[in-house]
Design goal:
The strands form two sheets. A two-stranded antiparallel ribbon has the order 1-4. It is an alpha+beta fold. The longest helix has 10 residues, at 66-75. The protein has a single domain, classed as Alpha-Beta Plaits (2-Layer Sandwich). A hairpin with a 4-residue loop joins strand 2 (26-28) and strand 3 (33-35). It is built from three helices and four strands, in the order E-E-E-E-H-H-H.
């Protein structure tokens, strides 16, 4: 098992989770984070830190493994993030919205720890 980030993170991008990760396996896109499942050690410390409840075990993924694939693919493309940042100013507005992937997902990378 590994942990993955779901679409609840899109447009929220709270980074409370990255500062508790002991193996620095989070990667930052323009409007969400992903976890590299190959680096994740399944400790679970990040899950309760996410205000949007967007981090789950991969056993809670869709039947086709959509989110595991998204996390795996974009962890290879986006920069690593290990330091907490302020969330976007409108993050709370999007925190409880459902089905955000089709509406808002961006493949563009974030800035990482710069």
């Amino acid at each position: 098992m590994t942990y993955i980030v779901l679409d609840g993170c899109i447009k929220c991008k709270y980074t409370d989770c990255v500062e508790v990760c002991p193996v620095d396996c989070f990667y930052e896109g323009e409007n969400m984070l992903v976890i590299d499942p190959e680096e994740c050690i399944d400790c679970g410390v990040c899950e309760p830190e996410c205000p949007a409840e967007a981090i789950v075990p991969d056993t809670e993924d869709t039947p086709d493994g959509k989110w595991l694939k998204i996390n795996t693919d974009f962890a290879k493309q986006w920069p690593n993030i290990t330091l907490r940042k302020d969330p976007p100013g409108d993050a709370d507005k999007f925190a409880q919205e459902k089905d955000k992937f089709e509406k808002y997902f961006s493949e563009k990378p974030g800035t990482g720890d710069e």
